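Following up on my earlier message about zinc ion. Here are the inputs again, as you asked, copied directly from the submission form:
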Amino acid sequence: MKLVKIKGIVVGEQVYSESSKILKIFTKEYGIISVMSKGCRKIKSIFHEASNTLIYANFDISYKEEGISNLIAVDIIKIFKNIVMDCKDLEKKSYSFLLINLTVQVVNQKNVKDIEISNIYDIFLACINKINEGFSPRIIVDIAKLKYLEYLGVKPSIDCCSNCGSNSNIITISSLSFGYICSNCYKNEKLASKDTIKMIRMLYYVDIDRIKKLEIDENIIEEIDEFLNDYYEEHTGIYTIINNKKNIFSKISEIIC
Ligand SMILES: [Zn+2]
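Thanks, got it. Here's what our run produced:
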């Protein structure tokens, strides 16, 4: 066991005994670690406020490589108030929890390299910040889904035709064909709009921290969602679709509020 000071964001919590919780903390250096927060369920505990999902903080922990580490001290950096405290805004919460669920699944895959975990951490934190700032959570989660595909080993071809490598006359994007398709290689794939084809590439390469405006036509978002949902279903083992929004939103509000 060694003492470490580490920055991270709580991505899960599990009640342990009457007074404690085991936190799942996502860190850049160690990935997702389990940390015992002793006594945190008592209101007077110094760990009480920090032992909740989506708390971003500096944690002093007694670190165990295998098993559960222990929380020694914590200094909160940020509470994403607009996500966790607004009980009326279920959309922000739902998409944030969908993003957490997706991120945990991506990080927990076998053979994920340290550098990849570090990149996933940066993407996740940037996305949570943007959702908290009020940008469309649906589009922000789409950006994360697109960027995570590289770490799932199935990056789509969005610079050129996935079949012949040509970068001219791209006419659609297909999940089955792993990305762009040019007019020469086109068979009978569903045609996506020109704007959707361009937008998917833009969202893939966008620097999330630098997003100042994010206004996208509803029809384009629908097409991007459809592409991503199909792509995840066909090429990853990860389930990401909100099938029944109302149902999930009300479930999440019960848990959080
Ligand atoms: Zn082609």
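One observation from looking it over: The two ends are 37 Å apart (CA to CA). Hope that helps, and feel free to reply on this thread.
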